[in-house]
Every structure is written in C-alpha cells, then in structure tokens.
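Re: that chain you flagged

S.,

Sorry for the slow reply, it's been a week of failed gels. I finally had a moment to sit down with the sequence you sent. For the record, here it is as I used it:
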Amino acid sequence: MVKTHPSVHPYDAAVAFDDDRMPFWWYARLVRRLCPAGGRLLEVGCGAGQLLRRLSAHYEVFGYDPVAAVRSRSRSAVPDAVILEDWNALPPASLDMIVSLRTLEQIARPLPTMQGLTSKLTAGGFLLLTVPNPGGLGRRLKGRSWFAYRQSAQLSLLTHGEWVMLLRKVGLEIVSVCGDGLWDAPYVGLVPTAVQRVLFAVPATVQMFWPLGGPMLPAVIGERLIITARRPA
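Prediction finished late last night. Pasting the structure tokens below so you have them in one place:
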C-alpha cells in the first residue's frame, strides 16, 4: 500500500482541495489521448478528486489516497468514482490505466509498489506518473533550495535513469519521459520574481496547448518528470 508523509509542499498546497486548476485539465487531456473511453482507470494519490472529476464521465474511475480525510473529500467531490481504502483490493489485470501525480516519490521503497501496480494493468495498459526531477534545470538553478529538498516527504528522489530502470524491471515499456516546465521561480537574482514566473512558464504553457496534446518538453526542462509507460500487449 502507498504510504505518504502528511506534510505538503507549498506547490501542492497551492492546488487547493476544491481548486480545479489548469494542470488537471491538461493531465485529463493526456489520459484521454492515451486510453480509449470506457476503460477502467485508477488514480493513486487522488487527493480531493480534481483529476477524477474530469475523467469520471469517460471512464470507470477508481481512486486511492493514503489519508482518510482526503478520501472522504474525494468521495464527496466525485460521486461517480469508487474511492478505495486499499488499491490492492483490485483484481490483477483489471485496469486499462493507472495515474499517479506527485505521489510515488513519497514512498521509501517504490519497487514493491510499482510491482503491485503493474500487476493491476491489463496487457497494453498505461501508467502515467510524475516525480521530481533531480537532473532537471530547476534543481541545477535552485541548488539546495530546490522544491523537493524543501519537503521532508520526498523519500525516493530517483533520477531519470533510475525511474526508467525501475519501470523496466517491473516489466513496463517506456513510452516517453518529458519535463513539466519550470514553475518554482525565482531562479536567478536581480530579475523580479513576477517577471521570472512569466518567462519561465512559457515552455510549460506551450506544451499545455500543443495541438498534439502530449508532453514534448525535454526531461531537463522540468521540475518534475512526466513518465508514460505501458505494459506489453
């Protein structure tokens, strides 16, 4: 079972319980691009259901969050979803897609969790996850003040290569590894923070509205990695 630290990073806290921010719209768009409507989908670390709310009209949706109070919020926000007390209760090979945003880095030993999640995917099923990117430009610019270093809950700060190796070890094929942009300004001195937020947000904004709908930024241009993997058919 996924267990996470109760502390919340300011970036995550900014995504309030009832706030359906633009990133959730984009991730929902990405999910719909990968997985045909009508399938079965699980979100691990579903929070208050911001993403599930956007997907429940298109899929049979399941959610899991390690915090009981958060699960209750999600049940209220997305009555069409099945919010699980334990995602391990799902049968093997029963899901067409698993999504986990800002969650898996909070697990001390991610390998057993990834093995369990992979077993729930059907042949050809997809996994979409986001995790901090220690090799990204954001970490290089911020140094010890990088967002992931500021939160004690980040237990598995794996590199791009380490996540790829782990996912391959559990039997998944890597589809893409991209970046989510730079959203943790300021990055440099002298330039006002407000100006930096606008300038550094340009690549992520372009990616979000890119007509093809999928991630395209190189992994280095991202505070987080956006990893898409697939269980072989």
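What I noticed first: The beta strands are 40-44, 60-64, 82-84, 95-101, 121-132, 173-179, 224-230.

Talk soon,
D.
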